[in-house]
From TrEMBL:
<feature type="active site" description="Proton donor">
    <location>
        <position position="40"/>
    </location>
</feature>
<dbReference type="GO" id="GO:0005737">
    <property type="term" value="C:cytoplasm"/>
</dbReference>
<feature type="active site" description="Proton acceptor">
    <location>
        <position position="12"/>
    </location>
</feature>
<feature type="binding site">
    <location>
        <position position="12"/>
    </location>
    <ligand>
        <name>Mg(2+)</name>
    </ligand>
</feature>
<keyword id="KW-0460">Magnesium</keyword>
<feature type="binding site">
    <location>
        <begin position="411"/>
        <end position="413"/>
    </location>
    <ligand>
        <name>GTP</name>
    </ligand>
</feature>
<dbReference type="InterPro" id="IPR027417">
    <property type="entry name" value="P-loop_NTPase"/>
</dbReference>
<dbReference type="Pfam" id="PF00709">
    <property type="entry name" value="Adenylsucc_synt"/>
</dbReference>
<feature type="binding site" description="in other chain">
    <location>
        <position position="223"/>
    </location>
    <ligand>
        <name>IMP</name>
    </ligand>
</feature>
<dbReference type="InterPro" id="IPR033128">
    <property type="entry name" value="Adenylosuccin_syn_Lys_AS"/>
</dbReference>
<comment type="similarity">
    <text>Belongs to the adenylosuccinate synthetase family.</text>
</comment>
<dbReference type="InterPro" id="IPR042111">
    <property type="entry name" value="Adenylosuccinate_synth_dom3"/>
</dbReference>
<feature type="binding site">
    <location>
        <position position="39"/>
    </location>
    <ligand>
        <name>Mg(2+)</name>
    </ligand>
</feature>
<feature type="binding site">
    <location>
        <begin position="39"/>
        <end position="41"/>
    </location>
    <ligand>
        <name>GTP</name>
    </ligand>
</feature>
<keyword id="KW-0658">Purine biosynthesis</keyword>
<dbReference type="GO" id="GO:0046040">
    <property type="term" value="P:IMP metabolic process"/>
</dbReference>
<dbReference type="InterPro" id="IPR018220">
    <property type="entry name" value="Adenylosuccin_syn_GTP-bd"/>
</dbReference>
Length: 422
């Protein structure tokens, strides 16, 4: 039995926190796509942890954590993550397994990312510059290096050929990028050695057997549906399928084995990087969301753009993913707003529409809002759903009615314990 947990917006919905909360119900947590562009934050016992590649179930004793074939791994960042876990005495050697088919991010992939962004000027994607795009390009172009290659003696030959090709490509971009490849490669090799201390597996086979044994598996997504390479706000997206189908290809899970699809969204919307964002606020309300929600990227530290909840986009994400239950995060951040606005339609080239059109740039789309009463109550100490203020209950009921999916969790703070089940 496999459940999926996915972000429904532009990422940073709070996936890390909820995976950590739910891990006790599962035997296996498996990441299925993305790479160190992700930053998944979890908090417990007063300590905040940020994971980039490693699944968010790693802090629990019993769960096995798998980095699936759909993930791209940068050994340098991976080693840093392992070193951090080591500080907390987490026994990652026995419970962290890596798919042989996961692709490797080379130092030159990162440089290519930087060169590509620099060459785009104002039209840049706002990439996290972790080499994600170039690595997936090599994967689909059938040139990539995979974790399994590291088990063969000739991996450095393969590495050299690919890195040399990348260097020529960097020159092609004709932009100023300063780097010392020898240093980057030395760091890469240290990372590879750290990675090789872990167990490499044929993860699809492992997951197949686990299912046959009746194990419960939670597939952890990265990014969000609106950053999906096919269904997101292209080209301002990431380079993987962040939606439910990505779990099938990123882990080898058959579609008919997926049971629950848990969709996570913030009570408002954020986006980091470039690209259209119809409900973005440039006023005091947006600044308040950013300040109270501490909206800074967990990977890059960049301020996140903030705005009201976009139900048109959320409904689209619910449909694409077949979401069976919803989790609303950061409800606490909206406490104190007199009025809460929800975008329920777009004015698209003069016509009122309720689906996501091909282009949602602000020159075409103006959000149409429904206004609701806000609440003043501080939610951060609440533990039970019957303590939620009536105006928040109205907000939740309105969203459930619009989306036709129940909201099962309301999150009221970053800590594991600040989680209300309904
Ligand atoms: P992810 O990428 O989806 O795992 O989300 P991030 O970790 O990038 O961003 C979510 C941020 O919100 C983190 O700093 C979390 O600690 C924090 N967070 C999660 N849930 C809540 C919540 O309910 N309330 C508040 N105030 N913060 C939250
Ligand atoms: P988590 O898993 C938010 C954004 C970047 C940029 C675009 C492409 O923490 O939710 P990339 O580095 O993939 O080439 O960047 O996607 N982006 C994210 N935004 N959360 C993430 O991950 C993101 N991963 C990538 O800001 O706009
Ligand atoms: Mg994040």
């Amino acid at each position: 039995m496999v459940d999926l947990l996915l972000g429904l917006q532009w990422g940073d919905e709070g996936k890390g926190k909820i995976v950590d909360v739910l891990t006790k119900e599962y035997d296996i947590i498996a990441r299925f796509q993305g790479g160190p562009n992700a930053g998944h934050t979890l908090e417990f016992d007063g300590i905040k942890h940020v994971l980039h590649t490693i699944p968010s179930g790693i802090f629990h004793k019993n769960a096995i954590n798998i980095v699936g074939n759909g993930v791209v791994i940068d050994p340098v960042i991976f080693k840093k993550e392992l070193d951090n876990l080591g500080k907390f005495n987490i026994d990652f050697v026995s419970k962290l397994l890596i798919s042989r088919k996961a692709h490797l991010i080379l130092p030159t992939h990162r440089l290519l990312d930087a060169a590509s962004e620099a060459s785009k000027g104002k039209a840049k994607i706002g990439s996290t510059l972790k080499g994600i795009g170039p690595t997936y390009m090599d994967k689909t172009g059938r040139n990539g290096m995979r974790v399994g290659d590291l088990e063969f003696d000739d991996w450095k030959t393969k590495y050299r050929a690919l890195a040399d090709k990348h260097e020529a490509m960097i020159d092609f971009y004709d932009v100023e990028i300063e780097y010392n490849l020898a240093e980057l490669e030395a760091e890469f090799c240290v990372g590879v050695e750290a990675l090789k201390k872990l167990t490499f597996i044929d993860s699809e086979e492992y997951i197949f057997k686990a299912q046959a044994e009746g194990k419960k598996i939670l597939a952890e997504g990265a990014q969000g549906s609106l950053l999906d390479i096919d269904f997101g706000t292209y080209p301002y997206v990431t380079s993987s399928n962040t939606t439910a189908a990505g779990a099938c290809t990123g882990l080898g899970v058959a579609p008919n084995k997926i049971e629950r699809v848990l969709g996570i969204f913030k009570a408002y919307t954020t986006r980091v990087g470039s690209g259209p964002f119809p409900t973005e606020l440039f006023d005091e309300d947006g600044a308040t969301m950013g300040r109270v929600g501490n909206e800074f990227g967990a990977t890059t530290g960049r301020p996140r753009r903030c705005g009201w909840l976009d139900l048109v986009a959320l409904k689209y994400a619910v449909q694409i993913n077949g979401v069976t239950e919803l989790m609303m995060m950061k409800a606490d951040v909206l406490s104190g707003f007199k009025t809460i606005k929800v975008c329920t339609a777009y004015d698209y080239k003069g016509e009122k529409i309720q689906h996501l059109p091909y282009n949602i740039e602000s020159e075409y789309v103006t959000p149409v809002y429904t206004e609701m009463k806000g609440w003043a109550k501080d939610l951060t100490k609440l533990t039970k759903s019957d303590e939620l203020p009536p105006a928040l209950n109205d907000y939740i009921s309105f969203l459930e009615e619009q989306l036709q999916v129940p909201i099962k969790i309301v999150s009221v703070g970053p800590d594991r314990l600040q989680t209300i089940h309904r």
